[in-house]
Specification:
globular; alpha/beta; eight-stranded parallel β-barrel; binds NADP nicotinamide-adenine-dinucleotide phosphate; 336 residues
Length: 336
């Protein structure tokens, strides 16, 4: 579930026209073992699977759900992103069952989130206990505030998270859909722990939330987790014919009318497709590695095993810096 639109700040209309950040990727070089998160001792995996889709699946889809997760585990994905609101806890439960059944030498990196409706101290604690029970784990690697609630003081929420961190139920604290002001407020409320990640919507076509926080996150060692990295399938080359575009993709039209925005973004997507073809990459490789070049880590969605395969196959191929720069310009509407 995407948090209420009213919680998102500083939106502009239409596809982003902002220039890419000039600062290079974070100074701590990412390795296969992951990106170090501040002084926490945690290392964050470079690519993850998001389990939001589990929430919208009906009971009949359960087998497909498990197959998708199973494929991700087989292919070495470690980072799994879920939330108490996804499928009202069903996403966490299915993840917990799959992790317990799968004997893997690879340690999973489990991230879940407390709902924006549960940010009062007693609610945060109860929400975490519920999540841990569904996941079948004594702790999670990262616990994120899913989105701020303007009616609840962040100070109280963050102090409770810090207490849970001291108790060892959370290895690290993070947030999601936070602006710079909210990040500052959240960090001020912590005395020993630090905000380690901010998960925001971020892809070649939608930078409205990420652009304003880039500098702050870089200078404070906060890793940006990019959700909707594939623009819900648009950046895999799907919907290029303009047919069957689902509401989730249409909603990225922001303030502009669909009649204006959809043809424009489709034109840019087709140009990205041509660039991918010319450079023997795939649109997915370009979309994911463009995010890495910005210093962000993608949390990808998939609703079937083949999509996990396609994403991970694309991840193996790293396009050149020139191709990524051209893709950036195309997505911003600058013609070659
Ligand atoms: N913090 C937050 O507020 C927030 C908000 C949204 C999402 N998230 C997290 O981020 C995760 C990813 O978000 P997202 O699902 O929007 O990401 P996404 O990666 O942009 O979109 C995933 C969707 O793209 C389509 N797709 C993926 N691979 C494909 C392929 N090879 N060919 C064709 N279509 C393909 C699938 O759509 P179909 O299923 O329709 O086939 C898939 O469900 C979520 O699961 C969730 O964990 C967090």
């Amino acid at each position: 579930m995407t948090p209420p639109a009213t919680k998102r700040k500083g939106r502009r209309s239409g596809p982003s026209t902002a220039k890419p950040p000039k600062t290079p990727a974070p100074s701590s070089a990412p390795t296969e073992a992951g990106i170090p998160l501040g002084k926490s001792g945690l290392r964050h995996p470079l690519i993850g699977l998001g389990l939001f889709a589990l929430g919208r699946w009906t009971r009949e889809d359960e087998a497909r759900t498990k197959a998708t997760l199973g494929r991700a585990l087989e292919r070495g994905i470690r980072w799994f992103d879920t939330a108490e609101v996804y499928g009202s806890g069903r996403s966490e439960r299915v993840l917990g069952e799959c992790l317990q059944r799968t004997a893997s030498s690879v340690r999973p990196f489990v991230v879940t989130k407390v709902s924006w409706e549960h940010l009062r101290p007693n609610q945060v604690r109860a929400a975490l206990i519920g999540s841990l029970q569904r996941l079948g784990r004594p702790s999670v690697d990262l616990y994120l505030v899913h989105a701020p609630d303007p009616h609840v003081s962040l100070k109280d929420t963050m102090s409770t998270l810090e207490a849970l961190w001291k108790e060892g139920k959370i290895a690290g604290i993070g947030v999601s859909n936070f602006s710079v002001e909210q990040l500052e407020e959240a960090q001020r409320a912590l005395s020993e722990a630090a905000v380690l990640v901010n998960q925001v919507r971020y892809n070649l076509f939608d930078r409205d939330d990420a652009d304003p926080i880039q500098e702050y996150c870089r200078s404070h060692g906060i890793l940006i987790e990019a959700y909707s990295p594939l623009a819900r399938g648009l950046l895999t080359g799907r919907y290029l014919d303009g047919k069957g575009i689902p509401p989730e993709v249409r909603r990225m039209a922001h303030g502009l009318s669909e009649e204006k925005w959809i043809p424009e973004v489709l034109q840019r997507a087709r140009a990205l497709h041509d660039l991918a073809h010319e450079s023997e990459a795939s649109m997915t490789s370009i979309a994911l590695h463009w995010l890495r070049a910005q210093g962000a880590v993608p949390v990808c969605g998939a609703s079937r095993p083949e999509q996990v395969d396609a994403t991970l196959d694309a991840w193996q191929h790293v396009p050149s810096a020139d191709v990524l720069q051209r893709a950036d310009a195309i997505a911003r509407g600058i013609r070659d």
